Give the backbone structure.
Amino acid sequence: MAVRVENIFADLPGSSGQEQSLALFENKSVRIERIVSHSHSSPTGFWYDPSESEWVMVLRGYATLEFEGGELVQMKEGDHLLIPSRVKHRVHQTAPDTIWLAVYVKLSGQPRKKSQK
């Protein structure tokens, strides 16, 4: 078996006004994505409401997440947090070039829901 090393910062997409995600690994229980945001904010009234728990880390840049109820959480490079399933949240704002690492974990018995990121 040949081992292949890849770099999470390679082949970054240009600014498109949208968040862009790249699946790095996926099986029936876990999905790992690189997400690139360019001064991104979720549309007004839009909320992520995932059936999976989501662990996110800011690798480059910074971001502010907003949770239902109005709580704002600021994240800088190296910060990470766990968002339990069914906790509504949205991207309030990101830096011009923000790179995230996101790990989505499906608990057994939960149906897989396609990511909206």
